[in-house]
């Protein structure tokens, strides 16, 4: 794990200077001070390394957004929490975000596209959860509102990451986006996107982290890495719950409380909450 993290850290420095395409495995290994053989023990290819970056970036952001939104004590706060947490995450991870958004159009990789589609569907789930707590003028416009919210996100992220517009006040940006979204929710009456045509936006990609087997594999890796005994034991018990057909949601929720503050456990906790429909 230490070597993997070293490769990611050093590769990011090179990617920031010269981009994905212009950076070779040889340059990465030279910058790390390791052999090519050591690189290939950690990553099968440069593409796999890039996907690891995307996984790390998106898992952290989505887990943070989902947790923050569902932790809101009042539904009125969900929208502002969503916009604030999303933009703060991109701001905090601006180095990789800038590289990725500038270069993703040049990186054609089926595995990468599948991962991006998967994470996009997770964002859709969170936004639809928020929309279900808004007062809409016409309930049939909810999927149009989903697209509009995602449009706001993309346009403003482009301004900050691609055009490098300074993000001087995150609170004002959040209030502005909330105001625009509420106007659309209140006054939009003509739907264009139906539930049926929006289904493609909600479909998850096959072979993702959603099934119990893959969540268990993630837990087993965490058990090896984590030293805190309470968290390690909680992960063991969560693994047993996933392997059993009869589970107590109260027990699972309590175990999730034990691991929720560990950054390494955020993604597993998110996947388990989703699997069992457990609210914060």
UniProtKB/TrEMBL annotation:
Family annotation (PROSITE patterns): HTH_TETR_2
DNA-binding region: 24-43
Record's keyword terms, sorted: DNA-binding, Repressor
The keyword DNA-binding is annotated on this UniProt entry: yes
Name of the protein in question: TetR/AcrR family transcriptional regulator
InterPro entries per UniProt: Homeodomain-like_sf, HTH-type_Tx_Regulator, HTH_TetR
Domain HTH tetR-type positions: 1-61
Lineage, uppermost ranks: Bacteria, Bacillati, Bacillota, Bacilli, Bacillales
Keyword DNA-binding set for record: yes
Top-level taxon of origin: Bacteria
């Amino acid at each position: 794990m230490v070597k993997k993290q070293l490769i990611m850290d050093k590769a990011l420095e090179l990617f920031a200077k010269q981009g994905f395409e212009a950076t070779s495995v040889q340059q990465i290994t030279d910058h790390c001070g390791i052999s090519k053989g050591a690189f290939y023990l950690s990553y099968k290819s440069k593409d796999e390394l890039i996907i690891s970056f995307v996984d790390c970036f998106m898992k952290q952001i989505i887990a943070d957004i989902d947790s923050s939104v569902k932790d809101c004590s009042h539904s009125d706060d969900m929208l502002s929490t969503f916009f604030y947490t999303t933009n703060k995450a991109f701001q905090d991870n601006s180095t990789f975000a800038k590289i990725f958004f500038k270069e993703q159009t040049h990186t054609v990789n089926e595995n990468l596209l599948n991962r991006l589609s998967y994470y996009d569907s997770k964002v859709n789930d969170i936004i639809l959860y928020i929309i279900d707590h808004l007062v809409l003028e016409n309930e049939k416009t909810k999927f149009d509102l989903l697209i509009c919210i995602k449009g706001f996100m993309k346009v403003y992220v482009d301004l900050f990451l691609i055009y490098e517009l300074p993000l001087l006040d995150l609170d004002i940006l959040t209030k502005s986006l909330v105001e625009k979204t509420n106007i659309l929710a209140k006054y939009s009456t003509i739907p264009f996107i139906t539930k049926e045509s929006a289904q493609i936006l909600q479909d998850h990609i096959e072979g993702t982290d959603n099934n119990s087997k893959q969540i268990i594999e993630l837990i087993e890796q965490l058990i090896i890495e984590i030293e805190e005994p309470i968290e390690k034991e909680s992960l063991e018990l969560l693994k047993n719950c996933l392997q059993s057909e009869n589970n107590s949601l109260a027990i699972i929720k309590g175990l999730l409380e034990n691991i929720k503050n560990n950054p390494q456990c955020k993604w597993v906790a998110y996947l388990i909450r989703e699997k069992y429909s457990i609210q914060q």
